[in-house]
Specification:
By secondary structure, the protein is an alpha/beta fold. The chain has a single domain (9-346), classed as TIM Barrel, CATH 3.20.20.210. Helix content is 46%, strand content 10%. It has a seven-stranded parallel sheet. α15 (300-314) links the parallel β8 (286-288) and β9 (320-321). α4 (59-73) runs parallel beside α7. It starts with 14 loop residues before the first helix and ends with a helix.
Length: 350
Amino acid sequence: MSRTPAPDLRLADSAFLKAARGEPVPHTPVWYMRQAGRSLPEYLKVREGVGMLESCMDAALTTEITLQPVRRYGVDAAVFFSDIVLPLKAVGVDLDIKPGIGPVVAEPVRTLADVEAIPDLTPEHVPFITEAVQALVRELGGTPLLGFAGAPFTVASYLVEGGPSKEHARTKAMMFGAPDVWDALMRKIAGIAAAFLEVQVRAGASAVQLFDSWAGALTPADYVEHVQRHSARVLAQIGELGVPRIHFGVGTSNLLGHLGDAGADIVGVDWRTPLADAIERVGDRGVQGNLDPTLVFAPTEVMTARAAEVIEAGRAAKGHVFNLGHGVIPSTDPDQLKRLTEFVQSYPLG
């Protein structure tokens, strides 16, 4: 195994890391969720004929895909190209990502025995992750790499439902009706997520994002009782490594304070919540977001005017990282996203 590269001295001047630490920034830093992916023609070219999980387990391909948006847009951070179910695949769970559907699990989790059959993740399960992160850190130089993992609730939902779900009925049935199985499953997944992020950080990632796609399906009380401590365990373990932590959930306007209380340095905000409101809810933490992803389809002057509103609102936060309020839509024009990036980076903060 190759040696982890020494941190690039230019990272100390990274606008992204400064914002994540709540320090003054030379400009509002910007990156985009799903910036490495389907909106880029160069991505479609290298992925041609290669399955999603297969591409995530190919260190050279992962490295190339992660670098593509940095080259094209000049964003302030790269985000590690992966998938939230990849760690499960790596430890042997029988699943695949079906085009047009999403992750599909062959044998959904129903019992304690099902949970106990899932191995804990070790670095030996994911040597391709270490290899890719080390290669990326060497290539990125002064641009920080953001590690990535799915949060316990979202990953648990895929395992219990057997695939994507709008209602999460089986998931909630287990959460409410079989709390011993639910707690064991969440502890298992939290351990896997923390180990997966730790591999990325120890290989050179400068920060991490814990992504909770489905947390918005929960009431605040249910989130606090059944979910929060498990996400907190992941964030606490990574916090011991001294890197900033972003915690993002979709449709989580009523959970933002709880997401922050789970241990985030920055709380990601989707487009549904005005950023000023979010800043009040998260307390003494930074925020990330939150331009509506569909605004990149609007005329440039409309898009940039709305982006300016987001930047201005972000001034009130301890730190602000500009992002979309969710991932880049596949049909997004890359040239328009480039214009947005340049606008944000050149917007005067003085």
